[in-house]
Write a structure and sequence with these properties.
Blueprint (H helix, E strand, L loop, with lengths): L2 E2 L3 E3 L5 E3 L12 H16 L6 H9 L18 H9 L14 H5 L2 H18 L10 E6 L11 E6 L2 H18 L17 H10 L1
Parallel strand pairs: 1-4
Antiparallel strand pairs: 2-3, 4-5
Helix pairs in contact: 3-5, 3-6
Length: 208
């Protein structure tokens, strides 16, 4: 399900859909056409490929078997303390995920949330697989302001995903950063925890 913002216009069918313009200059006349415009714009921004659902299902079914678990690093499994910190790092006041879950639900009792999620995250890390349902997201286009509501260039694309899975991805990002940190130059350390931003800022100011 795609949510849309912006001005709504009447169509030939009598239904009301947001005003969106195709790349050829014609107006979208149905919710399906609007959804197609929004998702293509989001894919272009994120450099993502658009594929049919069946392609994703086939990829899931052809995933490598248990033999790939032989090289498992136990450090890839988040500890209970790490899970608690990841849950606590969620911010309140965000839009709900496609499953209706709000970050406030996890933040209401961080310890209990961590106790519930830790076995689940452990299984994800051990099997190196995420549930297909957790990968579903909702593309939302937010108007940046101005008078033009038809062109997607005036919209900011936001992807709303599962907070349960996004919380787990925090651990993956930290683990990945630990593995590639030694490949980064000093001038590339801006924004990395524990790395100073002084040299990157100086470089930008000197040569930009």
């Amino acid at each position: 399900i795609l949510k849309f913002g912006g001005r709504r216009v009447a169509t030939f069918s009598g239904a009301r859909v947001p005003a969106r313009m195709n790349s050829n200059g014609s107006m979208a006349e149905s919710p399906v056409e609007v959804a197609d415009i929004v998702i293509k714009h989001f894919a272009s921004i994120e450099c993502a490929d658009l594929v049919e659902t069946q392609v994703v299902v086939d990829w899931e079914l052809t995933r490598p078997g248990p033999e790939h678990l032989k090289s498992l690093d136990i450090n890839n499994v988040p500890s209970k303390c790490q899970t608690r910190r990841m849950v606590a790092s969620n911010r309140s006041g965000r839009a709900p995920s496609p499953d209706g879950l709000l970050p406030e639900y996890l933040l209401a009792d961080v310890s209990t949330s961590a106790d519930i999620l830790h076995p689940f995250y452990t299984k994800l890390a051990l099997l190196r697989v995420e549930p297909f349902e957790g990968k579903k997201s909702v593309a939302v286009d937010l108007h940046k302001g101005g008078i033009d509501y038809m062109l997607m260039d005036f919209y900011r694309s936001v992807l709303l995903g599962s907070y349960v899975i996004k919380t787990y991805h925090k651990h993956i990002r930290l683990r990945t950063l630990e593995l590639v940190r030694h490949l980064l130059k000093t001038s590339q350390s801006g924004g990395i925890p524990g790395g100073s931003c002084e040299l990157p800022v100086l470089t930008v100011r000197s040569f930009a």
